[in-house]
Each structure stands twice: as C-alpha cells, then as structure tokens.
Amino acid sequence: MPSQAAVIASAYSFSLRVGRRSSAIDPWHFSATRRSMTKSVCIIGAGPSGLVAAKTLLQDVTPGSFKVTVFEAQSRIGGLWPNRKDDGGGLVHPLMIANQSRHTVQFSDLAWHESDPQMPRAWQVGQYLERYLKRYVGGADIRLGHRVVHAELEDGGPWRVQTESSNGPETSVFDYLLVGTGFFGKPAWPDYVPREAEVPIIHSSKYRNLESLLANQKGRGGKILVVGGQMSGIEIAGTIATHLSSAVNSPDEKEIEGPERYSVHHAAHRPVWVFPLFTSPKVNRSLPN
C-alpha cells in the first residue's frame, strides 16, 4: 500500500440498526501519527453508512485531523430512505413501515423523539437521518447531486476522484477514499420477467399509487401480480391491496376507474407468514402441553 494514500474501503461497519465500529482501520491511528497535517477524505454516498463515517472522522478524533467531503448522487441525503411523504424518486415507498421498531432502527448516539411512532415509516427514517446530519455532520462538505464516475489511486500519490453534476464534470484530489454505498442501490429484476408486455410491468421500488400503475387500463379490471416473497414483495402487495380498498370504499372521487374490478395476487417461492405489528401481551388461551 502506498505510504501517501490509502483506501478506506470499509473503515467502519455501519448499519442503521447498531452503528458499531470495526477494527479494520482506525482513524485514531491516523490522527495520532499524522496530527500535524489535516488529511482530506472523500466519502462516496450520504446514506446511513456515509453519514456515520463522516461523523466519526469529524467528531471522534482530534479536531482538524480530517477534512471530509461527501459526494451523493441524489438531490438529498439518506440513501434508500426518503425524507418526505411525496418523495417519488427513491427506491423505497415513503409510506412503507420499517420492519423494526424505532428502538432498534436508530444510532446509539441519537434517540428518536418520544412523539415518533413505535414503527416509523420510511420517510420518518429519512427525517431521522436529516436530524443526524444537522447534529453531527455539519462540518463536512456535503455535495448533493454529484455522482462519482471514476476514482484512481496515483502511484505514490493521492486519490483522484471524478464526479458529474449539473455543473459538468469535475476532478478532486483526496488523501483517503471511503466507499459508503449500500447493497440495495440497484433494483433486482429477474431474468424470467420481461421488461415490456401488454400489461404494465414495474419494479416494486417504482410503485407510488394506483393511478401511476393502472391509469391506462381504463377500468377494465384484472389481476395484479406481485412476484417475490421478501420484505419488499410483502410490503408492496399489502400496500396495493390497501390502496384498492381505500379507492373502493372512499366517498371521494375515485383515483382510478373501477377499482373493485382489480385483485392482488402474490407469488412467492416459500410460504409467507405475516404477523400484526402489535400483539396483545395477554395470552387468549393456554398453550398445549
């Protein structure tokens, strides 16, 4: 590894749930051995991992040890997590309910508000991350709308990082590079599912409302098939069914024509057991011996 530059491919093992530190690369070592000179760090991604990495480099070492720049391709921070109810550009439906309570979907150094729901929705997780940014990462240079297209480590020198934004291409130089992108940044599309057909075919990450899915069907009705039995498949099947039920029973103007003519069908390789989010602490009947 060159002496003047290093890759921090995963300096920390971060997750929204626990936010714990890995011992692979220790920024305290960098600050102790190179305290006389501020080092520049490029972080790719302003999701949970990128934000915690920036906070650690700014807050948990000697002040002035690192100058942190975060490049984020989207126009907001948060990664997969939207921060508004009407955020339609991300991969997660803003109204999706998290599959864990707020007591586990949080960082150890920032609690949720007491008024927040026990099971937050996706847009509320995004707002939680906005709070984290304001509290801990204000000293970083957050560059939204900047997509990293190339990064190269020069021989015996620094990292050259190329980005593209609305202002055009740009090249920046950094001492260290930290990749904070996640596993789920690209939708998975099965090979056996065609991209186009006579009926609308979309990925679950693109669904927002009935109108966007069925507007061109002119109320002819039919079956809505959801393929996939993981959490996103379960969530989207329930969401579409709820939207159809609301459209059928709402006294207001119908979002689509003939919502009662549609039904939701969920295809999965394995059985899916869906439990209510809240259950009674009292047992209604005695368990068998």
UniProtKB/TrEMBL annotation:
Q: Which domain of life is it from?
A: Eukaryota
* Family annotation (Gene3D superfamilies): FAD/NAD(P)-binding domain
Tell whether NADP is among the UniProt keywords.
yes
Keyword terms, alphabetized: FAD, Flavoprotein, NADP, Oxidoreductase
Q: Name one GO molecular function term.
A: flavin adenine dinucleotide binding
Q: Family per UniProt?
A: Belongs to the FMO family.
Q: PANTHER family, alphabetically?
A: DIMETHYLANILINE MONOOXYGENASE
What protein am I looking at? FAD/NAD(P)-binding domain-containing protein
Q: Which organism is it from?
A: Monosporascus ibericus
